[in-house]
Amino acid sequence: MNLAVDELTLRFAARHDEAAAARHELSTWLETTRPNASAVEIGDAALILTEMVANAIDHSETEDVEVRARLGETLDIEVANDGPVSSVPAVAQWGVLEHGDRGRGLRILHALCTTIRIEGDRSHTRIRCSYPLS
Length: 134
What we know:
The chain is α+β, with helices and mostly antiparallel strands and 134 residues long. The protein has a single domain (2-132), classed as Histidine kinase-like ATPase, C-terminal domain (Heat Shock Protein 90, 2-Layer Sandwich). Helix content is 36%, strand content 29%. It has helices at 16-33, 39-59, 104-112; strands spanning 2-3, 7-13, 64-71, 74-81, 115-120, 125-132. Strands 1-2-3-4-6-5 form a 6-stranded antiparallel β-sheet, covered by helices on one side. The longest helix is centred in the middle third of the chain and has 21 residues, at 39-59. It is globular. The model has no long low-confidence stretch (mean pLDDT 86).
């Protein structure tokens, strides 16, 4: 873990137990670096990270996940993995996905993040979400 004042970087095995530890580290980092952040903001940030990492684990064959969180006017959370970007639905669909039990996480991200960017190619995916802090 790289604990700088305005940036957190984590790299971990693509397993859900590792994602839980990353969520805890993000929450602790945010509480430390942004002491005026509300419990709702910290919870939303943890939820955003959880959904982004779960999607990387569940929908790619990546071995590792990389997370970067940056504080500025917004909290920017980025998750990168070695899966193909083609497996990610277009952001415009995230608020309206209706495939049974799937897609709830994307709808959550669409509702919480002011900006969502997807970049990648056949072997890498990077998703960035900006979350407004008060």
